[in-house]
Amino acid sequence: MGQRIISSRQREILALIETEGVQYIEELARRYDLTTQTIRRDINALCDLGHARRFHGGVDLPVEGSNISLNARAQLNRRAKRLIAKRVAADIGTDATVFLGIGSTVRFVAEALRDHQGLTVITNNIHVALSLCDAPSVEVHLTGGLLRHDDRDVVGTDVIRFVEKFYATYAIVGAGALSPLNGLMDFSYSEAQITNALLENSQTQILAADVSKWTRNAAVRVAPFSKLTRFYTDRLPGDAAATNALAESSLDVVTCSEDMT
């Protein structure tokens, strides 16, 4: 059921919920010049798949303070995530050892790394492993741990113990949310622990996250921006607090656009 293809309009509605918050049926109907009945069908389909939560007159994220499913996240800001992934991959050298963490943007990075030569990849992300399993020049180490069905990853102390056996050239991680005050944030303590283990056991720490992460709220602190080497994003928010926080951290920020190769 969760693998059902959603329409381009439904993807756009998901992106609106993700970046702007609550959406109302009447406003969506005016935006798309459609009847409210058509918009309700779109919303019902998204809710039936667990991507959204309906309420009287509108639609919101499934549960306040929790992340939406990986399949839903992969649909959101898809073009931006692919641009970010392409640029990250272009900056990864051959014969490197790479940690690839949790999240939909990291999944796109894995796809962009398929043709790299001599890579060793360590991951707890099932989608990453599947993307690279038939890439002949990439050696993949998949951690053990507790499988999370909706997120298609594994978590737990087994993951951390496995990660600590390596010292990677790069750690590439995502974030549930970004905060000017707290840096990287996530929805789960177990995710935060694993991301920290990847950062601590690597030479170059890379964050890959699109601009929508600045509008999300997550409760678990992961790491300050000062613990990162580079931040790849599609664009920066027009928020002075975020801009100042990044500048004060001395983080190398790379914005990715269509004309970058």
UniProtKB/TrEMBL annotation:
Q: Tell me the keywords, alphabetical order.
A: DNA-binding, Repressor, Transcription, Transcription regulation
Q: Keyword Repressor, does the record have it?
A: yes
- What PROSITE patterns has UniProt attached to this entry? HTH_DEOR_1, HTH_DEOR_2
- Molecular function terms from GO: DNA binding; DNA-binding transcription factor activity
Q: Name one Pfam family in it.
A: DeoRC
- The domain of life is Bacteria
- PANTHER family xref list: GLYCEROL-3-PHOSPHATE REGULON REPRESSOR, HTH-TYPE TRANSCRIPTIONAL REGULATOR SRLR-RELATED
Query: What name is this protein filed under?
Result: DeoR family glycerol-3-phosphate regulon repressor
In its UniProt entry, the species of origin is given as Rhizobium laguerreae
